[in-house]
Amino acid sequence: MLKATGIRKSYGNLEILKGVDFEVQKGEIVSIIGPSGAGKSTLLHILGTLDKPDSGTVALKGTVINKLNGNVLSAFRNQNVGFVFQFHHLLPEFSAIENICIPAFIAKTGKKQAETRALELLDLFGLKDRAQHKPNQLSGGEQQRIAIARALINSPSIILADEPSGNLDSENAAALHKLFVSLRDNFHQTFVIVTHNEHLAKTGDRVVTMKDGLII
Ligand code: ADP
Ligand code: ADP
């Protein structure tokens, strides 16, 4: 599904990624752990085309994505990559269902079709009765599930999650990782998850450890 080869990235004189090779199969959950500053977020941003490597290639479903630019890149990212962050970044003025639909509207999906899909996801996540709630009317765990529904609405090839449970208590964090596993089991959804929590990392299929800009 995703293959990165020889990824290098420097900020000024500081080399953050020193030649990273990384591969994910369809339907696989790969967790990335390692100390703060190891380069995990930088790698995730490059895998998701939010940032470009200085050298090396990233291929998603066979398309070398670090060669894409501008609107082509934005459209490719919006349709193929779903992002989940530590903080949900939901828009406060929009309802849950409106937030979920945003990437579909960017992809020019019709309103009816987008809302139908959003309601399916809300139902799947046990949140159908929360569709019209604003983010501040939802619990932390609910907000994060809405953010995951938003990441899923365009049926992306891969979900990239940076500390998705970092702001949740242990019960909600465990529930979130269980949700990832059920999305893998039921829909062959592919995930790369950066986490500090080694226990939760092990709920996936494979754990990769980064240190000083390399996978060790
Ligand atoms: P991790 O996610 O493993 O904690 P990061 O990828 O966030 O590591 O950061 C790795 C290093 O890169 C850190 O030393 C950080 O300060 C530095 N860094 C990250 N992004 C930038 C940037 N845009 N400009 C300069 N330095 C950065
Ligand atoms: P995390 O460790 O959870 O991945 P961040 O990715 O937010 O946290 O940042 C990691 C480190 O990189 C922090 O020390 C932060 O100050 C630094 N950093 C992030 N973005 C930049 C940037 N644009 N310029 C300089 N330093 C950055």
Automatic annotation (TrEMBL):
Keyword vocabulary terms for this entry: ATP-binding, Cell membrane, Membrane, Nucleotide-binding, Translocase, Transport
Gene Ontology MF annotations: ATP binding; ATP hydrolysis activity
CDD domains xref list: ABC_MJ0796_LolCDE_FtsE (cd03255)
Gene3D superfamilies per the UniProt record, alphabetical: P-loop containing nucleotide triphosphate hydrolases
InterPro entries according to UniProt: AAA+_ATPase, ABC_transporter-like_ATP-bd, ABC_transporter-like_CS, MacB-like_ATP-bd, P-loop_NTPase
GO term, biological process aspect, one: protein localization to outer membrane
Record's keyword annotation contains Membrane: yes
Family annotation (Pfam families): ABC_tran (PF00005)
Ranges that cross the membrane: none
Residue ranges of domain ABC transporter in the record: 2-216
Family of the protein in this entry: Belongs to the ABC transporter superfamily.
Identification of the protein by name: ABC transporter ATP-binding protein
Species per Swiss-Prot/TrEMBL record: Pedobacter endophyticus
